[in-house]
Amino acid sequence: MYESDLCRTVTMLAIDPSKKLSFQRLISNGDLVIVYERHNSMKAIKVCDGSELQNRFGVFKHSDWIGKPFGSKVLSNKGGFVYLLAPTPELWTLVLSHRTQILYIADISFVVMYLEIVPGCVVLESGTGSGSLTTSLARAVAPCGHVYTFDFHEQRAAAAKEDFEKTGVSSMITVGVRDIQGQGFPEEFCGMADSVFLDLPQPWLTMPSAAKMLKQDAVLCSFSPCIEQVQRSCETLKKDFTDIRTFEVLLRTYEVKEGSLDCGNINKGDSPQSLPCKRKQSSSRSSNGTNKSSATTVMAKPCSEAKGHTGYLTFARLKCL
């Protein structure tokens, strides 16, 4: 490892306690919490002493939440319960207000890894949108890195800035109002960025500017929903970039549960070893007086609400001079 690389690594791993992103404290009045009812029912709520949450599980007083650690189970007046979770980037992505189409966890994790983002990095992003990716980028560069994100829509940028303050990542994010597609990135960032992320209708217009912003051997990512956008982008990238690759991330979720399997209807020729009865077998008498064998086994099947195509992720590395 060269001396310059060693110094860069030490700088990246330095920790500033005042900027450390942590939820290892008790819930206070004014905090944002994620109220978890079940895996497909969560909501973000600001804790206000004197306020109440009413849902199908009963009435929950905010005053009972104050002083409890994140992750606590709290009871309602009816004995129902919810969990109070910290607004981590993963959970925030599932509950935030959709001002634009957002990136979800599968794409976000892929982006963070392939952009080689580590603590201490400086990341440029356009556009901000609903701030789903921006929040994860901030957590990835914490505690001493920074994300500079731009959106041409002033109201949208202001709403995103409010969300970053709610989730506790505002110290690592600077929100700017700028038409990056038309004007490019500000010249003050020339040669400073470790990574650039683009989510624009015509990203190829911004790529020459992005190349000037990146450090040597740094990586750019462009998200596009249409393959025609990818094709145009790749042609433009060839001038200043190398190692150009495009990915489509498809996530398949499975439902795994224990259930009963009817082993009574066995075709002739089937051996007992071929039956997926992995746990225990029991014998019961059916209505016609015959014995019927059943087994309890673990079954897995894809969830019916599988998400398909979200978009294409194109990565490219800046050519070394």
Automatic annotation (TrEMBL):
Give the transmembrane ranges.
Answer: none
- Outline the extent of the tRNA (adenine(58)-N(1))-methyltransferase catalytic subunit TRM61 C-terminal domain: 80-317
Q: Where does S-adenosyl-L-methionine bind?
A: S130, G131, S132, L133, D151, D179, D199
Where does this protein chiefly localize? nucleus
Catalytic activity from the UniProt record: adenosine(58) in tRNA + S-adenosyl-L-methionine = N(1)-methyladenosine(58) in tRNA + S-adenosyl-L-homocysteine + H(+)
Q: Key word Transferase present in the record?
A: yes
Q: Which domain of life is it from?
A: Eukaryota
Query: Which SUPFAM superfamilies does this entry report, sorted A to Z?
Result: S-adenosyl-L-methionine-dependent methyltransferases
Please provide, alphabetically and separated by semicolons, the GO molecular function terms listed in this UniProt record.
Answer: tRNA (adenine(58)-N1)-methyltransferase activity
Question: What is the source species?
Answer: Stephania cephalantha
**Where are the stretches annotated Disordered?**
265-298
- Name of protein: tRNA (adenine(58)-N(1))-methyltransferase
Please name the PANTHER family in this protein's record.
TRNA (ADENINE(58)-N(1))-METHYLTRANSFERASE, TRNA (ADENINE(58)-N(1))-METHYLTRANSFERASE CATALYTIC SUBUNIT TRMT61A
Write out the annotated subcellular location.
Nucleus
Assigned GO CC terms: nucleus; tRNA (m1A) methyltransferase complex
Keyword vocabulary terms for this entry: Methyltransferase, Nucleus, S-adenosyl-L-methionine, Transferase, tRNA processing
Q: Name one GO biological process term.
A: tRNA methylation
